[in-house]
Amino acid sequence: MFFIEINQNFGEHTRLLAPFIGIITIVWLLFIYHSHKKYGTKKTIMYFLPIIIATLFIESAGVASGRYYYPGYIIYLSVVGGSVPLIIVLAWSVNLFLCMNLGKHFISTIYQKRNYLQIIFISTTAGLFGVCLDLLEDPIAHYNSWWIWGASLEGIKFFEVPILNFVGWFVLIFFMSIATLLIEQSRFSENRKVLLSITSISITGTIIFVIHGLIVRLFEFTGLS
Amino acid sequence: MEKTVVQFIVENILLFLPLGITGIVVTIILFFMSKQENIPETEDLNSDFKTIFNFRLNIYVLVYLFIWIMIIIIGLSSNFIIPTIIGGIIAAIPLILMMLIELLTKNSKV
């Protein structure tokens, strides 16, 4: 079910893939260092591991379903039949950590109360910031073949990138932020928080699955996808 | 024929259902069986700021700015000009908002 592939032909059929991988690696290492220094090992695991596991499943399912694929990377992981580059799941952990913390800083300046509403505000901001970044990144990625969208995908596109991709980005970052912040602000011990953050992926994943499924149906119904 | 991720998961429900149910059950057990020990601490967001040459900079804004600049450089050097400019303007919105909020906070403290 789970396997690792090593690709001998790095960069094949792609352009400027090495700088992209370099950026992600630098930022990921910087965030791991910063998180470890500020929060310690357990919280760093809590922030990074759940999104890595969740996106490994989602991306692998996306590749297996034929919606898109990733050519030219070095290390690929597969859990449900689709091969996903290791750097892509690490990039997702960077996206979540970056957007969630930007959201925290932004919202805590204008709304100081620590309650569920603040969590919703932070998660919404994180999701929107993530979509803003992806509107720059995804068309360039598609153009340079870092990932390639299926040609027969229909509906509204933003420079060849299906609009549902951006909805997916928002839904994923929004719900993963909510789950992370709820666990982070709970009164459980640190060990329990780490365990909960990993096991709760199934609940967050189910919610993402249902909400995204409903949005896909709505888009199909209105002819947007 | 491409499918959505949701369609793929529905078609492979026998694979995802046991994983999902196991996770949900374990989460519920962990949630209700554990005693709540800690008082949730207030996060110190000031430690996310670094002072470089008398400038107080937010590490997350800096990283976002770094990614933004690098992706724009890649976009422009691939001759993908218009989408890079349009995407760059949209992706600058979080940066502008973060800088505005930082300015407003600074002004209100003075």
Tell me what you see in this structure.
The complex is a heterodimer of chains A (225) and B (110). By secondary structure, chain A is mostly helical. Chain A has helices at residues 17-39, 41-64, 86-110, 116-143, 163-184, 190-199, 201-222; strands at residues 3-6, 68-69, 75-78, 83-85, 148-149, 157-158, 161-162. Helices cover 68% and strands 8% of the residues of chain A. In chain A, helix 1 (17-39) crosses helix 3 (86-110) and helix 5 (163-184) packs antiparallel against helix 7 (201-222). In chain B, strands 1-2 form a two-stranded antiparallel ribbon. With 110 residues, chain B is mainly α. In chain B, a hairpin with a 2-residue loop joins strand 1 and strand 2 (55-58). Chain B has helices spanning 5-11, 13-33, 59-77, 81-109, and strands at residues 49-52, 55-58. Helices cover 69% and strands 7% of the residues of chain B. Classes of the chains: A mainly alpha (225), B mainly alpha (110). Chains A and B meet through helix 1, helix 2, helix 3, helix 4 and helix 6 of A and helix 1, helix 2, helix 3 and helix 4 of B.
| Shape annotation of chain A | globular
Beta content of chain A comes to 5-15%
Number of strands of chain B: 2
The helix/strand class of chain B is mainly alpha
Count up the helices of chain B. Answer: 4
Order of helices and strands of chain A: EHHEEEHHEEEHHH
What percent of residues of chain A adopt helix (DSSP H or I)? Answer: 55-70%
Share of helical residues of chain B: 55-70%
> Compute the gyration radius of chain B: what is it?
23 Å
Please state the average pLDDT score of chain A.
Answer: 92
Question: What's the shape of chain B?
Answer: flat
Model regions low in confidence, pLDDT < 50 over at least 5 residues of chain B: none
Tell me the radius of gyration of chain A. 18 Å
Strand share of the residues of chain B? 5-15%
